[in-house]
Amino acid sequence: MVRYLRGEAAAGRMLPFVVLYRDQLVGQLTVGGITWGSMCSANVGYWVDETAAGRGIMPTAVALAVDHCFRTLGLHRVEVCIRPENRPSRRVAEKLGFREEGLRPRYLHIDGDWRDHLVYALTAEEVPEGMLTRWRSVRSGLRPGN
User: Is 134 left (phi over 0), alpha (psi -120 to 50) or beta?
Assistant: First the structure.
Protein backbone atom coordinates (compact mmCIF):
# COMPACT_ATOMS: atom_id res chain seq x y z
CA MET A 1 0.00 0.00 0.00
CA VAL A 2 2.79 2.42 0.89
CA ARG A 3 4.54 1.65 -2.41
CA TYR A 4 1.31 2.33 -4.32
CA LEU A 5 0.67 5.61 -2.48
CA ARG A 6 4.24 6.78 -3.08
CA GLY A 7 3.95 5.96 -6.78
CA GLU A 8 0.67 7.83 -7.14
CA ALA A 9 2.12 10.80 -5.26
CA ALA A 10 5.21 10.82 -7.49
CA ALA A 11 2.92 10.81 -10.54
CA GLY A 12 0.99 13.81 -9.19
CA ARG A 13 -2.31 11.94 -8.91
CA MET A 14 -2.49 11.66 -5.12
CA LEU A 15 -1.32 13.24 -1.87
CA PRO A 16 -1.27 10.70 0.97
CA PHE A 17 -0.94 12.04 4.52
CA VAL A 18 -0.74 10.43 7.93
CA VAL A 19 -2.53 12.17 10.77
CA LEU A 20 -0.63 12.41 14.05
CA TYR A 21 -1.90 13.52 17.42
CA ARG A 22 0.55 13.84 20.30
CA ASP A 23 3.13 11.96 18.23
CA GLN A 24 0.77 9.01 17.68
CA LEU A 25 -0.66 7.82 14.37
CA VAL A 26 -4.42 8.38 14.69
CA GLY A 27 -5.59 8.53 11.09
CA GLN A 28 -4.93 8.94 7.43
CA LEU A 29 -6.06 11.43 4.80
CA THR A 30 -5.66 11.11 1.05
CA VAL A 31 -6.21 13.71 -1.62
CA GLY A 32 -6.83 11.50 -4.64
CA GLY A 33 -8.18 11.61 -8.14
CA ILE A 34 -6.28 14.81 -8.81
CA THR A 35 -7.38 16.01 -12.23
CA TRP A 36 -5.89 18.96 -14.05
CA GLY A 37 -7.01 20.80 -17.18
CA SER A 38 -10.47 22.26 -17.28
CA MET A 39 -11.55 20.31 -14.19
CA CYS A 40 -8.79 21.14 -11.61
CA SER A 41 -10.39 18.88 -9.03
CA ALA A 42 -9.65 16.22 -6.44
CA ASN A 43 -11.38 14.12 -3.82
CA VAL A 44 -10.52 13.72 -0.17
CA GLY A 45 -10.85 10.52 1.83
CA TYR A 46 -10.03 10.08 5.48
CA TRP A 47 -10.31 7.93 8.58
CA VAL A 48 -9.52 8.53 12.23
CA ASP A 49 -9.08 6.06 15.07
CA GLU A 50 -12.17 6.03 17.26
CA THR A 51 -10.04 6.79 20.34
CA ALA A 52 -9.09 10.13 18.75
CA ALA A 53 -12.50 10.98 17.31
CA GLY A 54 -14.43 14.00 18.54
CA ARG A 55 -11.37 16.16 19.22
CA GLY A 56 -11.42 18.17 15.99
CA ILE A 57 -8.40 16.31 14.65
CA MET A 58 -9.87 15.20 11.34
CA PRO A 59 -11.68 18.46 10.52
CA THR A 60 -8.38 20.25 11.13
CA ALA A 61 -6.51 17.80 8.89
CA VAL A 62 -9.13 18.13 6.12
CA ALA A 63 -9.02 21.94 6.42
CA LEU A 64 -5.23 21.93 6.03
CA ALA A 65 -5.42 19.58 3.03
CA VAL A 66 -8.13 21.64 1.32
CA ASP A 67 -6.13 24.84 1.83
CA HIS A 68 -3.14 23.10 0.25
CA CYS A 69 -5.29 21.97 -2.69
CA PHE A 70 -6.72 25.44 -3.32
CA ARG A 71 -3.83 27.71 -2.40
CA THR A 72 -0.73 25.70 -3.26
CA LEU A 73 -1.84 23.32 -6.01
CA GLY A 74 -4.35 25.72 -7.55
CA LEU A 75 -7.24 23.26 -7.68
CA HIS A 76 -10.75 24.62 -8.06
CA ARG A 77 -12.97 21.91 -6.55
CA VAL A 78 -12.66 19.31 -3.81
CA GLU A 79 -15.15 16.51 -3.19
CA VAL A 80 -15.68 14.15 -0.28
CA CYS A 81 -17.77 11.01 -0.91
CA ILE A 82 -19.11 9.32 2.21
CA ARG A 83 -21.33 6.34 2.87
CA PRO A 84 -24.71 7.65 4.07
CA GLU A 85 -24.60 5.61 7.28
CA ASN A 86 -21.18 7.01 8.25
CA ARG A 87 -22.51 9.87 10.36
CA PRO A 88 -19.15 10.84 11.97
CA SER A 89 -17.48 11.31 8.58
CA ARG A 90 -20.47 13.25 7.31
CA ARG A 91 -20.19 15.55 10.33
CA VAL A 92 -16.59 16.35 9.39
CA ALA A 93 -17.68 17.55 5.94
CA GLU A 94 -20.69 19.40 7.35
CA LYS A 95 -18.69 21.15 10.09
CA LEU A 96 -16.31 22.44 7.45
CA GLY A 97 -19.12 23.80 5.28
CA PHE A 98 -18.96 21.35 2.39
CA ARG A 99 -22.30 21.38 0.61
CA GLU A 100 -24.14 18.12 0.06
CA GLU A 101 -24.70 17.59 -3.66
CA GLY A 102 -26.49 14.28 -3.73
CA LEU A 103 -26.25 10.52 -3.78
CA ARG A 104 -24.02 8.40 -6.02
CA PRO A 105 -25.68 5.00 -6.08
CA ARG A 106 -23.40 1.96 -5.93
CA TYR A 107 -20.36 4.27 -6.19
CA LEU A 108 -17.53 2.24 -4.62
CA HIS A 109 -16.92 -1.46 -4.04
CA ILE A 110 -16.42 -1.86 -0.28
CA ASP A 111 -16.69 -4.95 1.93
CA GLY A 112 -17.77 -7.16 -0.95
CA ASP A 113 -20.52 -5.00 -2.39
CA TRP A 114 -21.15 -1.76 -4.29
CA ARG A 115 -21.98 0.96 -1.78
CA ASP A 116 -23.90 4.22 -2.15
CA HIS A 117 -22.09 7.45 -1.26
CA LEU A 118 -23.20 10.99 -0.53
CA VAL A 119 -21.21 13.64 -2.36
CA TYR A 120 -20.06 16.77 -0.56
CA ALA A 121 -18.18 19.44 -2.50
CA LEU A 122 -16.54 22.81 -2.18
CA THR A 123 -14.95 25.22 -4.64
CA ALA A 124 -12.13 27.65 -3.98
CA GLU A 125 -14.49 30.63 -4.31
CA GLU A 126 -16.57 29.32 -1.41
CA VAL A 127 -13.70 29.68 1.07
CA PRO A 128 -11.82 32.86 0.14
CA GLU A 129 -10.68 33.15 3.76
CA GLY A 130 -9.26 29.62 3.65
CA MET A 131 -10.64 26.43 5.10
CA LEU A 132 -8.49 26.47 8.25
CA THR A 133 -9.61 30.02 9.03
CA ARG A 134 -13.23 28.94 8.52
CA TRP A 135 -12.77 25.92 10.77
CA ARG A 136 -11.15 28.01 13.51
CA SER A 137 -14.12 30.40 13.35
CA VAL A 138 -16.57 27.53 13.63
CA ARG A 139 -14.69 26.07 16.61
CA SER A 140 -14.55 29.42 18.38
CA GLY A 141 -18.27 30.00 17.80
CA LEU A 142 -17.78 32.84 15.31
CA ARG A 143 -19.27 32.98 11.86
CA PRO A 144 -16.75 33.07 8.98
CA GLY A 145 -15.88 36.62 8.03
CA ASN A 146 -16.75 38.05 11.50
Answer: alpha
